[in-house]
Write a structure and sequence with these properties.
167 residues, mainly alpha, 9 helices, 0% strand, elongated
Length: 167
């Protein structure tokens, strides 16, 4: 659909008077930042939901366990939205380096503000490291959660059990 919209707009650009250029002429750096941070941000939250999903024994308990991650996701989005006007401010700089908020914060800074290449690289490395840690912890907890099927366990107990098992 996007390709068809882009092609039809390019064919009829003069008739539109270039009114939609702001939509179809997005800089490559913004698209790359969206792809990198969007993909790995999605993977991070997917692993978090997978961990919490492994801890439930009944489908009715899924929404109760997923609440904290959903709250974090919405809070990150709202913090970013409320600070759009000041994309180079201290709040956006902090949000762009916290791995759970960097998919929003760094994307906004790349698209609307001035950001150095080292800041993008550092933020992306922090995001990758967090994805790696959450994936490792998630794999251990998921494995333990499937072995204890039918017995509901809390996240804190799951972390303790996974640490005890490794020692």
């Amino acid at each position: 659909l996007v390709g068809a919209a882009l092609a039809s707009y390019q064919l009829n650009r003069e008739a539109w008077g270039g009114m939609l250029d702001f939509v179809f002429h997005i800089p490559g750096t913004v698209l790359l930042a969206f792809a990198m941070f969007g993909l790995f941000g999605y993977i991070l939250y997917a692993f978090c939901y997978g961990v919490l999903g492994a801890l439930v024994s009944k489908t009715e308990d899924v929404s109760r366990n997923a609440g904290p991650v959903m709250f974090l996701f919405v809070a990150a989005f709202l913090l970013t939205m409320f600070n759009l006007q000041n994309s180079d401010g201290i709040v956006m700089k902090v949000l762009s380096f916290i791995p759970f908020t960097s998919p929003y914060g760094m994307f906004v800074r790349v698209a609307m503000g001035n950001v150095a290449l080292w800041e993008i690289a550092l933020s992306f490395l922090l995001l990758l490291g967090t994805v790696w840690l959450v994936a490792g912890a998630g794999a251990k907890i998921y494995r333990m959660g499937t072995l204890m099927y039918g017995n509901p366990i809390k996240l804190s107990r799951a972390f303790r059990m996974s640490r005890e098992k490794n020692q």
